[in-house]
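COMPLEX REQUEST
Ligand: guanosine-5'-triphosphate
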Amino acid sequence: MAFKRDKKEEEDGGGNIFLNLEKTSVLQEARTFNETPVNPRKCTIILSKILYLINQGEQLGTTEATETFFAMTKLFQSRDVILRRMVYLGIKELSSLAEDVIIVTSSLTKDMTGKEDLYRAAAIRALCSITDGSMLQAIERYMKQAIVDRNAAVSSAALVSSLHMTRIAGDVVKRWVNEAQEALISDNVMVQYHALGVLYHIRKSDRLAVTKLVTKLTRSPLKSPFAVCLLIRIVCKLLEEEGDVALSESPLFDFVEKCLRHKSETVIYEAAHAVVNLRRTTPRELAPAVSVLQLFCSSPKPALRFAAVRTLNKVAMSHPAAVTACNLDLENLISDSNRSIATLAITTLLKTGAESSVDRLMKQISTFVSEISDEFKVVVVQAIRALCLKFPRKHGVLMNFLSAMLRDEGGLEYKASIADTIISIIEENPDAKETGLAHLCEFIEDCEHTSLAVRILHLLGKEGPRTKQPSRYIRFIYNRVILESAVVRCAAVAAMAQFGASCPDLLPNILVLLARCQMDCDDETRDRATFYYHILSGDQPQFIYHYIVDHLQVSIPSLERALTQYVANPTPEQFDISTVPVSAPEPTNVPEKGHGTVDIANPVAVQPETPAKAAESYAVKLASIPELAPLPGSLFRSSDPVQLTESETEYVVKCIKHCFSDHLILQFNILNTLSDTLLESIGVTLEEPEGYEILKEVACPKLSCGETGSVYVLLKFPEDLSLSVSTFGATLKFVVKDCDPTTGEPDTDEGYHDTYMLEDLDVLLSDQVVRVMKGNWGAAWEQAEGESFFELEDTYVLTSVTSLEQAIQNIVVFLGMQPAERTDRLPQGKSAHTLLLAGMFRGGHDVLVRAKLALAEGVTMQITVRAPSQEIAELITSALG
Amino acid sequence: MGLLDKLSSLFRLKKREVKVLVVGLNNSGKSTVLNHLKSDDDKITVEPTVGLNVEKFKHNNVGFTALDMSGQVRYREVWEHYYSDCEGIIFVIDSSDRLRLAVVQEELELLLQHPDTVGKRLPILFFANKMDARDALSSVKIASALNLHRIINKPWHICASNAVKGEGLDEGIEWLTQQICENIRKE
Ligand SMILES: Nc1nc2c(ncn2[C@@H]2O[C@H](COP(=O)(O)OP(=O)(O)OP(=O)(O)O)[C@@H](O)[C@H]2O)c(=O)[nH]1
Ligand SMILES: [Mg+2]
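STATUS: Structure written out below.
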């Protein structure tokens, strides 16, 4: 609706009156707020402008924001309802930008408890946005009253605000549980839904309490369909944690299945969606859920058809057989007047269909691909990508289709997804490489997206030199140097250098081109051309390897931090890049996301971090602990957290191993789950194995229930490398104080000492190695032949593995190194394979491994290691023994 | 009454809003004073103010908008943001709090020397509040303790009051109304 109206306005030429706003002049206008008497109409418009600007991403400085905020406080004089409600919005937007925002606390509490119902809900929301932990106590009483208020809007606002407040003061909000319980029996659909959200959030970490809540609610039906939907999600989360019991045995699942027959369509859909997404769903449970979705497919309501086909599309990969049952309905949807539905229907059919139907379906898509939005074009592209993996022989048709899509109009995200798909097809399927590169070359001839052009040029530089006829790519690349913007020209120069480095017969021509580029008007382009020209024309071939073929391995965020620090503290010494941590490449086989994960209305969502970012944030965290300063050099690698307790015990302990060049920091994260105890002086006793030396321990002073704290132990690695792979016994030690579960205050001052046995902790080879991506492994291997490298070779029979795939997986995990040249993918039907790996051992030592595998009784492996020292090479060969 | 009614119609005060700022240390009784002045159905239970609060009341047909400021230390520096656009100031003093009279003097000094008040003939009404308390100082003693007589470029007036019962408030507000009217007439 709203969308349509906007469009209409555009056509009317009415336009957006806020379109050309300028921050400084709007803030100037905000001085009107100081005038007496207040002019509500005028001030309302100015406030709208301010809100518009902020929502467009305009940045307000602290002083600007604070001034505006103070001026806004003067508007409380006016009793104009519209203006007052705008003021609430203004307070919410500025609350995070301005200083001293709590000065409106009293004004807002007055409105929140006053008689004017139109004010109350909005005042609560504004109040909660300005309140910090210390002020929360002062408004607690009002919040409790508001939660149980008879006015549904007020109650809902208070509940939702409580949910947001858990972020700053979880334990205060916990005390509102009785009020939330009362709100749960409300007749209002929203209030009931929000109350359940708050109750669940309060009890989330206490599995037993959640189970109780759920058991109670699944028996006495909730009125609100939204609350039931949320309940279904909670139930699914419990089911996922339940372990391997068959779903049909579980009373919780019974509830979900019953919801398939609920009278509200929303609930029915939620239940069906839940069932198909559960990890343990078998065809037996699937059938009723899919038939519900099938029914929805022929519903007259587009929203239901859309929801159904979208869900079927998602599960098409995990349960193809079940989705095939809906094929007829999906075929009908291909001609749906809603193009989004049609697209999803076709792509679902593509995912489940046979190779023979691919051509027909692709033809059908092409009839309307120009009519659908970019977002759905991306869905089509993803379907094509899946198809290519499934039917490698079809790559010709599909690639043609993709290149036609590339030529069409479209935004960056859409074009990037096409390019990604072509790139992944090239990588998966050697037969498709040359055609794929040709399509991409053609695309960059007319590509408006700089970032994409740069990526493709990089790819050409990497793959082009290793094709049958490298020279054919040079023209496309050099054209960019003549025609494009500076950023693209730089990338083109770098790509040409790759050809020069790897194809000796092209080198003279490349040198001529690079010499021309030295006249470029852009500094960076000229610098690069000069740099590459001199390296390539020089007489030191190892430079060509180090500076052109092999690329920078350090982690970019860490490099940035190190450089900032270097610039901030000038020293006469040169910057030493070897102190910057190496970044591990991102894992390639990320399992498809969005399946089986149940995300319950969680206001504090966590973004998954890339390895480089995670390592960098660990480095910052460790550096901020005064007891550990100075850190023993720069952080080399942090392991994933290792669980040292069973998951549902009194204390949950995880360990992260931070590896430095000669030291190891063990970080134990401890979660106290006992609601009636307070832990103090928490430490970890380690039985350190031979060779290790404990240098420092940092205890955790105190942990109340639900809190997580960390204990750190700093160790020195053994001199003798072969001792570094070892096992530690570990015990948690602490002082326990019993306390009142409601207030969290200890009953007595006296506590008693206690210990808690943890599982053994292994320090592995892979903890001391980071993965390194070698673009050209062969060149690196040859390079490691001459220079002070040691080579060690050994042969093993891996008796415990039965297939080459398994052997590859195990070796990669044990050594913690990066497979190169896609040698971790096994071509079908082979009985021998060579796995190539690259990594870096702590201390910055490059390590290369070649493992020749052959399938006989078990798997025979001949492993060759090239490393800068004998000791490292031995450690690595022995790790597999 | 008759006189005031005439005055207000004369200067068209009937439709006019008058804006005053209410300041003073915390716990001096500012919110209690305003609460008493408000009409019966607007009354609230008084609690320490956080930041500021806007209150409205009528006195003899003149509509007052009062900014009730918090007197807590951390909010005192907020007062000055509101000096520029008020027509009068009500300064509430707890007359039984001898100890903090020095603090009152300091805050008053800051107020008088602020650029936004210095050149203006802003009328200041002092309430020597809590006169019912046993060890309360008289309004005369407070005036001399605060050295009020040195204020020459602004009209000022001090009355003893009991904000809980409402005693002494009307007298003060009447004086303030008159002063503000005079200021307007001179303009
Ligand atoms: N005995 C007596 N008590 C008073 C009088 N005026 C106010 N109080 C009491 O003094 C206390 C503080 O009054 P408030 O009106 O909250 O003081 P305030 O100046 O607004 O304080 P802040 O908002 O914190 O700056 C309350 O308990 C009042 O009941 C008075 O004239 N006599
Ligand atoms: Mg007050």
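REMARKS: Residues 800 and 858 of chain A are 7 Å apart (CA to CA). Confidence is low (pLDDT under 50) at residues 1-13, 588-609 of chain A.
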